[in-house]
Amino acid sequence: MRVTLPLSLTSLALIASFSGCTPKSETSAPGDSSAVSPASSGKQLTMYLLPKKKGLAYFTSCAEGAQEAAKELGDVNLIYDGPTDGAPEKAASLIETWTLKGADAIAVSPNDPAVLASAMKAAKAKGVHLLTWDADGSKDSRDFFVNQATSQQIGEALVDAMAKDLGGAQPVGKVAIVTATLTAANQNEWITAMKERLKKYPQMELVAIKPCNEDQAVAFAVTQDLMKAYPDLRGVFGISSVAFPGAAEAVKQAGKTGKVLVTGLSTPNNMKAYVQDGTVKSVILWNTKDLGYLTVYAAEALATGKLKPGATTFKAGRLGEKKIVGDNILLGDILVFNKDNIGKYDF
């Protein structure tokens, strides 16, 4: 026979203290989906930061900036997580899970916008604030895009860097592009801008565009194949953070340093050795920590009503006033790293 005893006031108080009535404060370390809490008063916002592929140095450095912003703001529980293989279906599943958990805001770098759109729209319909960052998705699936730079700026910077590295006002030679995936919307926009900019250099001929599936070993093999298919190849653009070092390593191992020039987009830490040994002359990027930082500030402002559609500027902590064009929050200037300045950067 079971006897049920009445609960004392002390017991009731203990139960209340463990019932989850007080919101947790969690800020994840970069590359880790576990949460750590910043001391803060008031309502806590639960925010998720989703990269294309977790584990890449590029996205880890973005997450470091995001963590900095979350700590400054104090009202943000930041969780950074994503698929380690970059599978968009897994990313969509995470968005669905976070929506069910009651996320206040989700910031997504979509690897395949078409695959993620349904989950993103469903989250919006349930009141979650949706942003894209690093790469955009369909406009009806998010509120704002935190954009590191316009596609035109990036495309022009890449082509101009290659032209300068090849030398002369009218550089001559065949060039190829190694991209991440053929479905990466942001990279396809960059390629469109690159093609347009190449018209300025009519003797630079784009002969191939190949994907590496966001895998450095594949980028290495693809670049090897390109050099075999085009023995007179003069330049390779690696337009993802793993395509670039993979292409550079292929050129270096082929003994073609200085004969086949490589430029592209990657973190300075990934490319320092190649710049120092002459395989690479120019590295194009933006401040990745600032991109993550700006994304969290934007998400917090959106979730609290400080940022609304139609705004033309936005104040983001130490970054100051940032320009908004349409629904694009712009980070700012592109950085060019070379032998003279790359040692000054650590990300």
Please characterize this protein's 3D structure.
The chain has helices at residues 9-17, 57-73, 88-100, 113-125, 151-166, 185-198, 216-229, 243-253, 268-276, 288-303, and strands spanning 45-50, 76-80, 105-108, 129-133, 144-147, 173-179, 204-211, 233-238, 261-265, 280-285, 313-315, 321-325, 328-330, 335-337. The protein has 347 residues and is α/β, with parallel strands linked by helices. The chain folds into two domains: 24-148 and 288-331, 3-Layer(aba) Sandwich (Rossmann fold), CATH 3.40.50; 151-285, 3-Layer(aba) Sandwich (Rossmann fold). The strands form two sheets. An eight-stranded mixed β-sheet has the order 2-1-3-4-5-13-12-11, with helices on both faces. Strands 7-6-8-9-10-14 form a six-stranded mixed β-sheet, with helices on both faces. α3 (88-100) packs parallel to α4 (113-125). The longest helix is centred in the N-terminal third of the chain and has 17 residues, at 57-73.
